[in-house]
Amino acid sequence: MNAKPVIILGIESSCDETAAAVLSDTNILANIIAGQEVHKNFGGVVPELASRAHQQNIVPVVDEALKKAGVKREDISAVSFTQGPGLLGSLLVGGSFAKAFALALDIPLIPVNHMQAHILAHFITPPPGLLPKREEEQSKPSFPFLCLTVSGGHTQIVLVKDYLEMEVIGQTTDDAAGEAFDKAAKIMGLPYPGGPLVDKYAKLGNPLRYKFPEAKIPGYDFSFSGLKTAFMYFIRDNGMDNTCSTPEEFISKNLNDICASLQHTIVQTLIHKLELAATDLGIKEIAIAGGVSANSGLRNALLEMQATKGYKVYIPPFEYCTDNAAMIAITGYYKFLQGQLAGQDTGTKALLYF
């Protein structure tokens, strides 16, 4: 007789996406995300506006997820939610809803570390028939593996020993790689969010035309603040040479090559540190996670590592790269199996470490 599946409702509200997902064991049943267009007017996420939008979105998003999954409230085994890191006001909306939902149904509550969840997104089982069985099994990393977790707020190399046993062995000492993409895009006058636009234009440019500095940081750590400063001066100085009278004219004439060269520098910085860690630790299983893992330059560089240096590389589907609730639900599932539950007195934390 088959055991009753574990049904997890996941809630994600760490920044500017309100998301809810339903998993049956590791199988995805629904993954609903509501974005927030209001921030485009300000060139970045405004925390107060984000938390207000979460309050408007949370109930309809959860309702849609349950309907799409075909799951009744009484079928849910536990509710997991993003405890942190993230914007405190945004976290409070998702956390408060999850606590009220769990209390009303008398089911367990599971707080989840947002960054760990990005990594565990690799273990979500796609809908039946989407991938051949063999390919589906091969799409999940084997322990131990290294995961390069890259987003707008974080850049980390994580040694993943088991589902819930992880160690950060390298991280940025200042700015994240995703922030470097977005700030450089803002300097060029591109609309928010600028990172995907840099990637779009980079596909049409020469990545070796311009050279930008790569920070020399000991060990497996990163630094991108110097690159941002160098890029700002690069745009300013080249906008006043003999061929262009303004920075805007220089950008307009050379946008594709500028984006390609910038992206090449950021990607190579990430890959060099990742290869160093993999070599030192003797690990051949490599994964990427986080919003910047959707970047085509980074994905191609990882695939080149696999083709030329014998690494086995795991790249998540696009829908699990940016913030989503499916990754919160899968982490909740593994924590549920190990009895890592919480009471109503648990809180949210804007800064939360492994």
CATH architecture verdict of the largest domain: 2-Layer Sandwich
* CATH level-four homologous superfamily name of the largest domain: ATPase, nucleotide binding domain
> What overall geometry do the principal axes of the alpha carbons give?
globular
The domain tally reads 2
Number of strands: 10
Structural class of the secondary elements?
Answer: alpha/beta
Low-confidence stretches: 131-137
**What's the CATH topology name of the largest domain?**
Nucleotidyltransferase, domain 5
Count, helices: 10
User: What separation lies between the terminal Cα atoms?
Assistant: 38 Å
Rounded to an integer in angstroms, the radius of gyration calculated over CA atoms is: 21 Å
Q: What percent of residues are in strands?
A: 15-25%
Main-sheet strand order equals 3-2-1-4-5
- Largest sheet data: 5 strands, mixed
Features:
354 residues, alpha/beta, Nucleotidyltransferase, domain 5, five-stranded mixed sheet, globular
